[in-house]
Amino acid sequence: xxxxxxxxxxxxxxxxxxxxxxxxxxxxxxxxxxxxxxxxxxxxxxxxxxxxxxxxxxxxxxxxxxxxxxxxxxxxxxxxxxxxxxxxxxxxxxxxxxxxxxxxxxxxxxxxxxxxxxxxxxxxxxxxxxxxxxxxxxxxxxxxxxxxxxxxxxxxxxxxxxxxxxxxxxxxxxxxxxxxxxxxxxxxxxxxxxxxxxxxxxxxxxxxxxxxxxxxxxxxxxxxxxxxxxxxxxxxxxxxxxxxxxxxxxxxxxxxxxxxxxxxxxxxxxxxxxxxxxxxxxxxxxxxxxxxxxxxxxxxxxxxxxxxxxxxxxxxxxxxxxxxxxxxxxxxxxxxxxxxxxxxxxxxxxxxxxxxxxxxxxxxxxxxxxxxxxxxxxxxxxxxxxxxxxxxxxxxxxxxxxxxxxxxxxxxxxxxxxxxxxxxxxxxxxxxxxxxxxxxxxxxxxxxxxxxxxxxxxxxxxxxxxxxxxxxxxxxxxxxxxxxxxxxxxxxxxxxxxxxxxxxxxxxxxxxxxxxxxxxxxxxxxxxxxxxxxxxxxxxxxxxxxxxxxxxxxxxxxxxxxxxxxxxxxxxxxxxxxxxxxxxxxxxxxxxxxxxxxxxxxxxxxxxxxxxxxxxxxxxxxxxxxxxxxxxxxxxxxxxxxxxxxxxxxxxxxxxxxxxxxxxxxxxxxxxxxxxxxxxxxxxxxxxxxxxxxxxxxxxxxxxxxxxxxxxxxxxxxxxxxxxxxxxxxxxxxxxxxxxxxxxxxxxxxxxxxxxxxxxxxxxxxxxxxxxxxxxxxxxxxxxxxxxxxxxxxxxxxxxxxxxxxxxxxxxxxxxxxxxxxxxxxxxxxxxxxxxxxxxxxxxxxxxx
Length: 849
Description:
Strand content: 5-15%
Radius of gyration: 34 Å
CATH superfamily of the largest domain: 5'-nuclease
Strand order of the largest sheet: 3-2-1-4-5-6
Structural class: alpha/beta
Number of strands: 24
CATH architecture of the largest domain: 3-Layer(aba) Sandwich
CATH topology of the largest domain: Rossmann fold
Distance between the termini: 78 Å
Number of domains: 5
Mean pLDDT: 87
Number of helices: 35
Oligomer: single chain
């Protein structure tokens, strides 16, 4: 017979600090729960105990505190994000029908010790699962301790028995408390004897066995050590009492009460759904559970009908899903209690255009593509649960429908075995009800209703139209890049004195650091690093480095842009049709994929030249409208810094102005170098740049960089005030807001890990600015699109990249379009400083920049 006892607090604490921050879509922290459950399930499975218990500390005036006020005084209070997780852990333990044992004022170790002491003579094997070594003193012939370390992918253990503890720990089990009495325990603030370390303590216990014997034989111990022991005698015996596990608590529990019992699977399933632990749900096989669990999804009775005409739909609100695997549309009409199916795109298009019917869908843009919607302006009264969930939390890792059902309805549609898509369409109503309430509660209506939803038809048309690519230009440029790469390879091999794979970090590392003896900048687990940061630092150390950097640049241009774009050209249209993703960034910016047109190089001319291949249709011209320094203008508006505001109001060169301020010179005396450095400070401030980051970016010392930043804040004090306040707001609320109330949750803002916390603070500083810029650009796109349609112009928006909007315009419309674009973009929002838009035209994308 076997009893397994879990040290609850120890496992929880270690899981919390070992695993990265995890949260549900509703921002419930879950890393400690995840780690704890991983350990629990692993040992329930591997040990297959007959009896089981989880022991916890219980608050109250701790017995040890009464004796020694400094006991555990160095411990910080339990982090809020761990405290929040404990009730969920207890719910899981309850669902597993495992008894929780605790006793007021005492620690889990004391509960475990009491249980072991009471049951160790009952012909029972006892296994203690813990995260620390305090319970090693409980080892006995039938008691073992497993010290566990939890990670995402695995849980490792260190097994201690009464036979191996001396070999592994240095002392026997019965000497563990004597050992701690001598060396102390920093984690519990047990003092021990000052000046005595591990080796001395082990040697003393090998010779004298116990603490009492050591003090009875002080006369036999050499002078210097004896003096330490004499001086620390009171602390030694106090430390022994503090370290000794109490084994006689009056806990009323019988062995029968600890018997392993059947789990409450329905309850456990619901908790795991709430916590979005899909991997555990799959691991435990809940998708194949019995009828009781299937009832977790309650569906009304409904008829399945084939939709032949929208006149058959009775309701004024319907719910629509597209099943990609079936090629069918599912439409739930709650008034007639019917789920209609249709493969007829024309019927669905009519439905989407019907002004009198409110529609709720998942992924509206995809549905428009599936029906090949002919005029996006005619789209009427559609809500999208995917975009609603994105507006509520832009930091989610997934917006797939199944995850949304789990997150907001605590419902897993995977367990619907029959008519799964019909069931999901019915549940779409419940999901929308929940999301719409949360949007109101979080004051996100404007972002959802006036920015994200109106943007859908625009993006749909942009994707459908695409961007023309001149194959001949692209092929010529490809040959040019291939020729440059061949020349670079030859030069690199000549300098290296041998052929090697330049793209292999291992081979490159050998050439640079072993053969050419260049100074090592950074090591990795596999050897010397050759990443971009390392090569930049070595730039002027050897002639081979600039060649390797050029080689990498041209290789990326060739593979990612030249070859990648060539494969993306639609043979029927001669254009690339990118996918513009609304839910792809935490800031609210659009993302682009297949191909990604937003990462076409712009910083260096060799990469920018590829833009020559992007051309308009014959008889058309490309018009490019670009916001000038929009993020700095938003910073001026949000911070209300008078110097910044005045600079923009007076149309001054903001970088020269900043240079004059921080260098203490007149604007006329600002050199190009000074302006360049000031520009790095201006943009760096937005991103919460550190002195280290700035020093690296503009190649100055950290001391100089710190002085630059300090001088900037002296001249623009309200900027510093804003940045401090926004970090404070994020720490208090867990999120930040844009000018339009777009919310971004800031994970790790309270992290005990300094690097994670600093990164979170930088995100908090930047997100309101970058997010507001994204919102303004989206509003501008909507305004420009509507003006083009209102004026019956043939011009069309074909691309949006960060602060830039690109329009393909018939030559005869270009002057009208320039005026429309500039007016609508500059008036998209009213700030304390003017928005300025630069408009250019060209016969290819390169010419417009």
